[in-house]
Each structure stands twice: as C-alpha cells, then as structure tokens.
Design a protein that fits this description.
GO cellular component, one term: nuclear speck
EC number: 1.14.11.53
Distance between the termini: 43 Å
Subunit structure: Monomer. May also exist as homodimer.
Keywords: Cytoplasm, Dioxygenase, Iron, Metal-binding, Nucleus, Oxidoreductase
Bound molecules: 2-oxoglutaric acid, fe (ii) ion
Shape: globular
Structural class: alpha+beta
GO molecular function, one term: broad specificity oxidative DNA demethylase activity
Length: 527
C-alpha cells in the first residue's frame, strides 16, 4: 500500500529500464542481480514427458477443473485473472491470498495400488503426468549447479542472436542441450566435497499450482506499471506459503491453435519474443509470454524480462522469491503453467488438522451408558486450547473448503469423506463450547454477589475471546459468501456458507449467531 504508492510517486511518469534478451547487458544483469533464476529450455526435457504433461493440461481444461479463485486482497474480494487448480501430495493444501486450496492428489505409483476411486481414469492419468513432471523437477533442481546455470544462460543469448536462423540450426542446439542434461555428464564436473556456489539442496516439491489463461477471453488486463513491460496476466508478487529458500519450478505451455496436437518443440513462427518480430511471409508473429522479474522495493536495478517458448521451464532458486518479485506478462496464445512448490505445510495437511481435532476431543467425555457428554477438565489453558482448535477447524478448513463451492467434489471425491469427518469433530466441539458456557454461567449462580472467583473469571475471559473471534470470522465468511462477485458464479461454483443452521435447529448445541452469548459472558465479567 504505502510503500508502493511512495515508489510510484518517486517514479512519476518515468519508467524504470528493463532488459530482455535482445538488449545489451542482459546477460550481465541476469548474472549480477537475478542469479537465482534458471531457464531450462524445452529441448532439455524428454519429449514423452512434454506430450504427457501437455495432454494432461488440456484434459484438466476440458473437464473444467481450472477455475478462477475468489481471493481477498486488502480486505476486498477479487477474482484471480488466471484459472487455477492445485495438485499435490494427498491431504496437502496451499494457502494464498486468504484462500486455502485443497490438492487433488496426484496419483503417483504408490497411491495407485491403494485402489482409490476418487476420480475418473482420465483425470487420474492427468494427475499422474503432473506427478511425473514433479519428479523430474525434484531431481533436476537438486542437480543444478552453477556451471549448468551459466550454460543455460549462454544459450538464451545464443538463441536470441540466431533467432532469424533456420530450423537446422535449432536442431543442432537441441542435441547439444540433451547432452548437457544427462546426469552422468554433469556429475563428472562436480567435486563431491565442495558443492559449488548456488547449489540447491534436493527439493521435494509437494504441490503444484496450475494456472491457465486465454488472453483473448480477457476483457481487461492491467498494464505493468513500473517498467512498461506490457499486459500482465499475474501482477508483481512473491509466492506465499513456501518453505523459506525453497525453489519453485515452473513448466510453461502456450497452446497454439491446433488443439490436442503435441507441440513440445515450438515451431518456427512460435519463437518470436514480441510483436515487433516479423517472419518471412509478411505475417506478424504472435507475441510470446514472458516472465518479469524485479528486485523488491528497488527502482534502480533494471528489471529482467524473459520470453518463454512453449515447453520452456524456469526455476527460481535460493532466496530469489523473497528478495525479488515476479510477474507474468501475457502473450497472444492461451497458456498453461504448472508451478511446483515446497509448500510450508506444518499446519496445512489433513493429518495435521485431524490430529489437532483429536487433541481437543480428548477433553470431551461421553458416558458409555447414557451417551451424554461432559468436559474432562475445566482448566482455562486447556479450554483455550480447545476453543482455538475449534476456530481453526471451522475457519481454516470447513469454511475455506465450502467457500469454494462444489468444485472439489465435482472432479474428485478425495476430500469429501475427510471433510464430513472434520465437520463431525467440529460439531462435538460446539458441544464442548456449550458445556463450557454452561459451567461458566452455573458457577455464577452458586457464587455470592460481588465475589468473582479468579478461576471463573479466567474461564469467562478465555471463553469470551474465543467467541468474539468466532463471531467476527463467521461474519467475514458470510460477507465473502454473499459478496456481489460471489453472486456472479454459476450454482456449482458458488460459495456455500457452511456450516450454517437456523435458530431453532434442535440438532445444534449452540446458535450460529453468537451475539447474545457474547453479551451474557461480557456482562458476567463486568459484575
Ligand atoms: O505462470 C507462471 O509462470 C508463474 C505464475 C506465478 O507466478 C504463480 O502462480 O505464482
Ligand atoms: Fe508466482
């Protein structure tokens, strides 16, 4: 907000310079200020992998899995301009812009045997292809060395300089690249004792966030404001929710018109870097997609702009993501990207939240005879812990999940059962809060006026702060669900405000609206 405004003010009408491959000093700039960026040209990936991945992306589009997210940016609801879907390790989630995405599990070799039937064979095959790409990236990133990076950089310049050259020239470079990418070859140049500078520890990418956008279908794309790089598909940002210093690997696929055909090697007319490039027959080339990079909060270092051909990959290594921002500049063709990440999942997996629920429910005792419930302890610290878990499961899981409508159950039922179970646990926690409240109010009656017991005050305060938090967050989710943007969604994608129940629902221990209860507990504390 403020920092950004100040930067734009300082800049006035001027633009900061940036360099692309055709500019003098591009390579030096890359080496000096963007050394964490690595480009892997399409030709250094196995051809079958390209074919499977590209077919998978088209399948996911055909099935309608890619959807725009209704995220929150500075307290405002906005749709992302790209459509997305998350794939990843079973039970993993990825949180960005106040939105938790739930991964469709990629069906790797080992999970296949467990006979899961959560999605149809076509979708399963697509997920598996992206898992294979993920495995390729895990290995490739861990093998990257300074030498490789420089070799790759040299090629960018080389290829740009010879852009007007014929196919034969490109063919020869392809074979050069595949030699370089052989494991044995690169191992021999590396001493085991001293990993070269810039060496990245082996990365285990646990999710990939897929992006898709067809610029032709977008009525308005923002202009890149600082450098004048052109129309942005994704504005300047750091990737959120990652293990610090972990790499990000991106596969870029721009699909040119003949659909379904595997085009991992860009044809001649697809290699241009911008509209300015003209090819032989007088037909103007299509503008390519580009990635923009800038040093965060710096208006002196020139920006870097890197055109991507279909099938190209890039890595953001080391701390590039934290020291720099990146944006995606739209080309003419529709484009997919698969962005592989090491998500920070300490509080973001299904097993994590399930075990949290178990912790809370330890404090709830069910009488085996009557089935009636009671609390095991009333210690404020324990109760606070339980109420926090209650809020966590409600707002970080249930409401996040249902806010995204039926989108998960439509394609893949993997999350359905776990979500039902989490909701059952949550409902037991509603019972716990009800019992806790009853205790706080009952002891009130037993005590003499004017004498407020310390422990009761503690209990009431603990309860009150959890209830206020819950009340406010329920309101925020109600607002998000009923926003004018949410109304524009078709029924199957529309946000669902769940859990929600009416005032006279006999199955629920407490009302949805907590205003009355909050008032009661507050007035009890004021005595
Ligand atoms: O599409 C890309 O190349 C990267 C998109 C991106 O920056 C993101 O999804 O965070
Ligand atoms: Fe990003």
């Amino acid at each position: 907000g403020v920092r950004k405004r100040r930067l734009l003010q300082e800049l006035g009408d001027q633009k900061i310079p940036f360099k692309g491959p055709s500019n003098q000093g591009f390579q030096q700039l890359w080496d000096s200020s963007y050394s964490g960026l690595v480009l892997r040209r399409a030709c250094s990936l196995p051809a079958e992998l390209h074919c499977r991945v590209q077919a998978a992306l088209l399948t996911l589009r055909k099935k309608g899995c890619l959807l725009r997210d209704l995220v929150r940016v500075r307290d405002r609801d906005v749709f992302t301009s790209v459509s997305r879907v998350l794939l990843g390790e079973p039970g993993h989630t990825y949180r960005y812009l106040d939105t938790r995405l739930f991964a469709i599990p990629w069906h790797s070799e080992d999970t296949e045997f467990k006979g899961q039937n959560c999605c149809d064979p076509g979708l399963r095959a697509a997920c598996k292809a992206l898992w294979e790409l993920n495995s390729f990236f895990c290995l490739d990133v861990s093998q990257l060395k300074e030498g490789d990076r420089l070799a790759q950089c040299a090629k960018v310049v080389q290829e740009t300089e010879t852009k007007a050259s014929d196919e034969a020239d490109v063919e020869s470079k392809h074979s050069e690249d595949s030699r370089n990418s052989e494991v044995g070859d690169s191992e021999s140049s590396c001493s085991e004792h001293s990993p070269p500078r810039g060496f990245t520890r082996s990365a285990k990418f646990n999710v990939t966030l897929l992006n898709y956008m067809d610029p032709a279908a977008m009525s308005h794309l923002k202009e890149e404001p600082y450098y004048g790089m052109g129309k942005m598909a994704v504005g300047w940002h750091h990737d959120e929710n990652l293990i610090s210093h972990s790499p990000v690997a991106v596969y870029s696929y721009s699909c040119h018109d003949d659909k379904g055909k595997c085009q991992h090697m860009p044809s001649k007319e697809q290699r241009g870097e911008g509209r300015t490039v003209q090819s032989g027959e007088g037909s103007s080339e299509k503008a390519s997609w580009r990635i923009g990079l800038k040093v965060a909060w710096d208006i002196h270092t020139p920006g870097l702009m890197l055109p991507l051909q279909s099938g190209d990959c890039y890595y953001m290594r080391d701390n590039l993501n934290s020291t720099h921002q990146h944006c995606i500049l739209a080309g003419d063709a529709a484009r997919f990207s698969s962005t592989h990440r090491v998500a920070e999942c300490s509080t973001g997996t299904l097993t994590y939240i399930q075990s949290r629920c178990q912790e809370a429910l330890c404090n709830l005792h069910a009488d085996p005879e009557t089935g009636s419930h009671s609390l095991t302890t009333l210690r404020p610290a324990t109760m606070q812990h339980c109420e926090e878990i209650h809020n966590e499961v409600e707002f970080e899981w249930l409401r996040q999940y249902w806010f995204q409508g039926q989108r998960y159950t439509r394609f893949c039922s993997w999350w359905s059962k776990p979500m039902e179970e989490l909701e059952k646990d949550w409902k037991l926690m509603e019972t716990m809060t009800m019992l806790f409240l009853a205790k706080v109010e009952e002891e009130e009656e037993e005590e003499e006026e004017g004498q407020v017991g310390e422990s009761r005050r503690d209990m009431a305060e603990t309860l009150l702060s959890a209830l206020i938090d819950r009340h406010q967050q329920r309101q925020t989710w109600r607002d998000r669900c009923h926003s004018s943007l949410a109304q524009t969604l078709p029924p199957e994608e529309a946000p669902v405000d769940r859990p929600f129940w009416g005032v006279d629902d006999p199955g629920m221990p407490l009302p949805f609206d907590l205003a009355d209860i909050i008032n009661r507990v507050e007035s009890l504390l004021w005595r």
